[in-house]
Design brief:
The chain has helices at residues 11-20, 40-51, 53-56, 72-76, 95-101, 120-131, 158-170, 180-192, 198-206, 212-221, 224-237, 255-266, 271-280, 289-294, 311-331, 350-357, 442-449, 457-470, 491-503; strands at 408-410, 418-423. The chain has 19 helices and two strands. The chain folds into three domains: 11-138, no CATH class; 180-222, no CATH class; 227-369 and 392-454, no CATH class. It has a two-stranded antiparallel sheet with strand order 1-2.
């Protein structure tokens, strides 16, 4: 049996301590550090998140000893015993340090039975950080991206500048430029997924103009194969399939939406509109048929076609799937944990999950109505055309019900156990700011996702594109920008790409995928 750190709230003492130690708690989310200076986001948060936050983090139900190490207020708080978990620049005054190095198994943190023992290197890192002032930072991904500054008169492309600076710090140099045929092969495979033909190679090698390579890039971006190439990645994100993905795995008509995605990339549709159309195209003023078709994105979930299903159960499953997909695709956050309980690491609650689900459950699921469990099978097969001439292709899209469905937190995520004391009106996660006062529906959610109030969409998108072309994202955990996700290998480069993608560069339009 171990004894967790014992802390009680003392707001007056906390205020005095914060005033005394304020010099180290307000660093930018990824400020450029001097050599040897540790960064909370880069060096410390990953250790604390892996080893400490499960018991001393965001989840109040699992929190031990009323101690939080995920916030500066919790870490600097003075307990009823007069102790402080972390006292900046004072190892001896930091109870956390004493617990980390204790030889007493009843006092040592993390406890042995947690299987989260700190390595000698991790202990040394925490020691140095406390000695340097124990500066906390807000989680980098939840802060707005900021375009880095570049030296006046710099002629190199900003990407080259940022990469070269990092290589220099690490003691490396750029590799020699590839030969022209290799360059053409690489860019062709990247942009259209196909190698160049012998004739295309000959044309490129014979072109000695300064913009010969740029002309090849423009040719490839104009190819219809470009949209097909880009769509393959988005179809994976959107969990697209030509079958229901459940039990008998029957065929379904999803290909019109797939073709819409291909056309959107070929037409270089602004990415913010691409997102809004898929989440709420049917709710736009006077929506076109194509904008309504785009909402089939929200219908890509597995579908049951078996008899005897419980409609309420699968309505809940489908809506939960939409929440998870929106979190992954547009926020880079795993929201599934919050379906049953508050997130163990990220500042996301169970109420946040069901408030998001409230955007997606006010529709009719025709295929779940009037299920017949004893329908007679056909007695004889009669050949007939799959789509007789003149028949319309039917695609499942979104259509909002006249009134929102009342939504509540579901106890342990069970569809038949709503907690009537915990209603969840539509709103975005509280960590991103106060709820909007305007009427909420999928369109307001979509517009928030593409707005500047959401710091994640541009970063998540450019990181996913970087992974497509280079194999590994600038953030390796492409679908997890939360506290358990990896810190960016090049944070300034990630923010440069995100801001330029979102805002344009003065010569190109915002959200321009081909420019990216």
């Amino acid at each position: 049996m171990y004894h967790p750190l014992s802390y009680a709230s003392n707001s007056i003492c906390l205020a005095l301590l914060l005033a005394a130690c304020s010099r180290g708690i307000a660093l930018p989310a990824h400020a450029e550090d001097s050599p040897g200076v540790l960064s909370f986001n880069r060096d410390i948060r990953p250790i604390l998140s892996d080893k400490c936050f499960a018991c001393h983090g965001f989840d109040a139900k699992q929190r031990q000893a009323d101690l939080r190490l995920d916030t500066v207020e919790g870490a600097y708080a003075i307990s009823g015993e007069g102790k402080v978990a972390i006292k900046p620049s004072d190892l001896q005054g930091s109870e956390l340090w004493h617990r980390i190095i204790s030889d007493d198994p009843q006092q040592r943190m993390p406890p042995a039975e947690s299987n989260k023992t700190l390595s000698a290197e991790e202990k040394e890192t925490i020691k140095r950080w406390i000695e340097q002032g124990a500066a906390y930072q807000k989680h980098w991904a939840f802060e707005p991206p900021v375009r880095p500054d570049f030296p006046a008169g710099e002629t190199k492309h900003p990407i080259d500048v940022l990469i070269a600076e990092r290589l220099k710090r690490e003691g490396f140099a750029l590799s020699p430029e590839a030969d022209r045929e290799t360059l053409l092969r690489r860019v062709s495979l990247d942009l259209i997924g196909l190698p160049p033909s012998p004739e295309e190679i000959d044309v490129f090698l014979a072109d000695t103009s300064p913009d010969a390579y740029e002309k090849q890039v423009d040719r490839l971006l104009a190819s219809s194969h470009y949209g097909e190439r880009m769509a393959t990645f988005w179809l994976d994100v959107a969990r697209y399939g030509d079958t229901n993905g459940y039990l008998h795995d029957l065929l379904r008509t999803g290909w019109p939406w797939r073709d819409w995605v291909v056309k959107s990339f070929n037409d270089n549709a602004p990415f913010d509109q691409f997102v809004v159309d898929q989440l709420a195209g049917d709710l736009l003023p006077a929506p076109t048929e194509q904008q309504t078709l785009a909402t089939a994105f929200l219908r890509n979930h597995p579908i049951t076609a078996e008899g005897g299903t419980i409609a309420a159960e699968y309505m809940n499953e489908y809506a939960a799937d939409r929440v998870q997909t929106v979190g992954t695709a547009f926020l880079g956050l795993g929201l599934n944990c919050c379906r049953c309980h508050d997130h163990k690491f990220d500042p996301l609650t169970q109420s946040d999950f069901y408030s998001l689900q409230a955007y997606f459950n006010s529709i009719t699921e025709k295929h779940l109505e009037n299920n017949q469990s004893n329908a007679y099978p056909p007695l004889i097969d009669v050949p007939s055309p799959l789509l007789p001439d003149g028949d319309k292709v039917m695609v499942m899209v979104m259509q909002e019900a006249p009134e929102p469905t009342a939504t509540f937190v579901l106890v342990r995520g069970q569809y038949d156990q709503p907690d009537a004391t915990r209603p969840t009106p539509r709103r975005t996660p509280a960590v991103f700011g106060p709820a909007s006062t305007e009427p909420q529906n999928r369109l307001t959610l979509a517009r928030w996702i593409v707005s500047r109030d959401n710091p994640l969409l541009a970063r998540v998108t450019v990181n996913r594109v970087w992974q497509q072309f280079f194999g590994t994202g600038l953030v390796k955990t492409v679908e997890d920008f939360g506290l358990q996700g990896d810190y960016p290998s090049h944070p300034e480069l990630l923010d440069f790409l995100a801001v330029e993608f979102r805002d344009g560069d003065g010569m190109t339009t915002p959200w321009n995928v081909k420019h990216l």
